[in-house]
User: Fold this.
Amino acid sequence: MAIGIPVLLGFASLSVALAAVVVWNLRLRGKVRAKTAELEASLRASVEREDNYRLLVEHQTDLVVKVDSEGRFLYVSPTYCRVFGRSEEELLGRAFMPLVHEDDRQSTREAMQALLVPPHTAYLEQRAMTVDGWRWFAWNDSAVLGPDGKIREIIGVGRDITERKEAEELLRLSEERFAKAFHSSPAPLVISDIESGRFIDVNARWVEMLGFAKEEQIGRTSKEVGIWADPAQRDNAIALIRSQGHFKEFPIEFMTRDGQIRSALWSAEVISLQGREVMLSLLFDYTGRKRTEEALRESESRYRSVVDNIQDVFYRTDAAGLLVMVSPSGARLLGYDSPDEMFGRPNETFWYDPVKRAEFLGLIRTHGRVSDYEVTLKRRDGRPVLVATSSGLYFDAQGNALGVEGIFRDIAERKRAEEALRVSEERFRSIVEASPMGMHFYRLDEGGRLILDGANPSADTMLGIDHASLAGLAIEEAFPGLAGTDIPEMYRRVARGEFESQFFETAYDDGRICGFYSVTVFRIGTDAVATAYLDITDRRRSEELLRQSEEKFSQLFRLSPYAISLSDPESGLIVDVNDAFVQLSGYARDELLGRTSLELGLIVDPSKRAGMVERLQKTGQGGSVEMEVRCKDGSLIPCSVSCQFVTIDRRSFMLSVTRDLTETRRMQEIMIQTEKMVSVGGIAAGIAHEINNPLGIIVQSAQNLVLRTRPDFRRNIEVAEGIGLDMALLEKYMSERKILSFVVDMQAAAVRAADIIRHMLDFSRRSESRRTACSVDVLVERAVELARSDYDLKKSYDFRKIEIVREFADGLRQVHCTETEIEQVLLNLLRNAAQAMATSEPAECPRIVIRAANVESGVRIEVEDNGPGMAPAVQRRIFEPFYTTKPPGVGTGLGLSVSYFIVTRGHGGRMWVESEPGAGAKFIVELPCDAAAATGGDRPGA
Assistant:
């Protein structure tokens, strides 16, 4: 019994435990069943949400994609496939980057990199190649991270923003047109900062009206510039602009730069410019001027609202055609307060024409779906609204059609745009037909050939051909002059959209058409271009003539040996100078430009320039005025200045030509000296003629005296016998008294004097001399003979005391020359040598060596003395006119310069000097033997 009680107790405990287990098991089963039911409900909700999400995604007009971290497609929405013209199978697993425009790929990569950084989102805008060509898309991307924190996938939602981009481009063009209108406006305009009042920009008319340069106004206030007659007027006007934002025709008085007070009406308005509020002002000057008819107008609205998103309508009907689902945008589209008012109504209720609904359903049953199908819906108030729908059947899990679902889009705007496009095309066609420019229209065929579709009437008139006969031909066939050029390829690239437009000028000649044309080629559609061109042949000829004229003027200006300057007629500021002016004045070009001649002190007597300018302004002719010009080093140069007004780039300038008279006056002195020499030569010739007569009598008388005293002459013997004279005694007497010797000497002296006079006469008849072939040794001897008769008592030198050494080569060639001129050259050299030796320390034996030898170019003559020689500085100037080393009153300084001129200019030869101080001097003359070479030509000495 004692043992049974514990057993019973244990059995009871076990039973209780088993009962507790059973109860716990029952409760656990209940919880499992509840959790299972909850999971099943959650799964059903998840499937339903996924189904709804799928429906939204597949019928959404936005583009939805999912890509991996390498940019390969994991999912693409049907809309994406339709836009890009690819199937889902073609896209999945392939990278999206090749579809992106090359210029946008870098920004796309940067956006992908931004996804690596929290919050792992990115926004970008890019161009992509769609079935409609390049289109702009805005993408909102989100990265989905894996458990390891790395990007597992990227979900992107994109929207076509091409229209927005075009609107932004229109906005940019609008601002550009505003800037052009601002600066080209005939009305004075100014833009200023409202707070500080400082000028931001002014147009040319404003500058012209006030007289202040633009640089003097920008960045300063109107008070600082000093345009207000009464500054309080400006403060009152600013108070108006701040309170009202604008005012019109506010009366003010302003001052111009020259101090004139003028009355004006001031209109101003606050505008937004590049995100900044500024004041745009216009002044209308009505002080004695014609009131302008043009006023500033708004070129167009600067800002306009841009639609962020087009709200499409999603709908679903059941199998009975009752509306079971619609997005809020549908209620707004059809004028209902909320979608609830629409639910449960037959879909025909919302169709303007229920018959069309039946046709619509028939198409869906036949094709499974419709895309962009245009229908007319009925608003709540009965008004029609045109929409386009993409709709289809939707099915349950067993494939049973449950009803119709799809997207509606309001296309009223699109229809209006299409109508506007039609009107625009009609206007374009009218413009093309009436345009004075020739126009051609081309299209690309499948083979890439550019086919001429047509031309406007002006093209027929301009080119003189019937384009109808060329329609359908390739461009190279229609216009063979373009074959082999890059123009057809340029047209093709524009047609393919690589360029929007191109402008060029070209010459064309194919035998039928010849001219020069300016051409604009622009795209007018897919694979289509138009060209608009003008015949500019006459303009190009005019431009070429103008260019040649300007080049000639520029060359004449720069290369003129005369000093030329361009200056402002009013201020006298020097605008440009040529190289000759720089050389004459001694100033650098930069030192001259922007300064006046008075500032530089160029004109010694400014009154002469003032008188010349005044005469030019009154009569239009400045004449030629002699005045002295002061160089930079202070030296004075006599000049002749003439001036004239010229117009360059529509501006008037004074063109001044300055001629250095230094050489002219030297030449005048040379001419005066030459006239003197001519006069002396004439006198000498007259004296020689006069001496010749008595000299002939003396020679004849001496000859008769000798003949009539000869003892063996029969007539003398007869006369002597008749008077009783012994001829033998007479002869003895005359011999003893040396009378016959006197007669012989008198005869010889007379003959020598006659020879000298003959040389003087020959020398004085230089103008009558002619070129002949002359022997050099004969010319030298004549010159030596003339030199021997030359005495200079003032210097007390006697040529006869100088040793003359002749070194003539055998076989000397004759030179073609004027013998008297070469004699003069040699005589000048001999005289100079004798004078140099006479003025130096007495030499042991004054000597002149005359050499003559054949050389390749002709004959070389050297005249060398053993006098004092000359320094290098003297040698450099020895042939300059009027340069002499002799004391005043001795020589003119013309002998060697005249000799140099005779040899180089007159005979085409060469002449130079070789000398060292204390070692004598040697003058070398080379004369050509050829008659053609001896005709002259300035050949410089060595």
